[in-house]
Every structure is written in C-alpha cells, then in structure tokens.
Design goal:
The protein has 100 residues and is mainly α. The chain has one domain. It is built from 3 helices and 2 strands, in the order E-H-H-H-E. It has a two-stranded antiparallel ribbon. The longest helix has 34 residues.
C-alpha cells in the first residue's frame, strides 16, 4: 500500500486546466446547438439568445481553463495541508504483468 503524501499544486493546476478546457469546449458545443433552437435556448437561459457564437466558443473554454487551473492549484495546496492530519490517500499499485 502506498500513500500520496504531497501533490505539486502547479502540476495539478495544469492537469485540471486541460480537463476543464475539454469540458468548456464540450459545453460550448452544447450551447451552440441549443442556440440554434430558440425554444431549447430558453430552457437553458433566456439570455443565451443574446450571446454570439464567437463569445460562446471564446468565453467558455477560456473561462473554464482559467477556472480549472486556479481550482487545481487551490486543491493542491489544500490537499498538502490536510495530509498533515490524515496521512494522505492510500493507493494499491500492481505491475501490469502481475495478475491478482
């Protein structure tokens, strides 16, 4: 059994930002499809009709990427602080050629 005792906050920030970028792109696609159908757009938010496609495909991925980076850094620092009290997350590793 191994324990994750410390996480590099910057590394977690980079990883989280790429994950959030993918979510932001996916969300942009969903919103642009919803924008093509006014009754569906109102189900999301009535203000969606006033946003341009340019804004959807620029704002959401960029905002999600920045938010993911900041969130990853904060979670990394919080994890490192909390592990002083909990000892970290326990994980069990196995070699791919060894079947359990």
């Amino acid at each position: 059994m191994y324990r994750i005792k410390k996480i590099n906050p910057l590394s977690l920030g980079y990883t989280a930002s790429l994950i959030y970028l993918a979510v932001g792109i996916l969300f942009s696609i969903v919103l642009s499809v919803a924008k093509t159908n006014p009754s569906l757009a109102i189900a999301f938010n009535s203000n969606l009709l006033s946003i341009s496609y340019y804004e959807i495909f620029l704002l959401y991925p960029v905002a999600y990427t920045i938010g993911g980076f900041v969130t990853g850094i904060v979670i990394g620092f919080l994890y490192n602080f909390v592990t002083k009290f909990t000892g970290g997350i326990s994980i069990e590793l196995s070699h791919p050629s060894i079947k359990s």
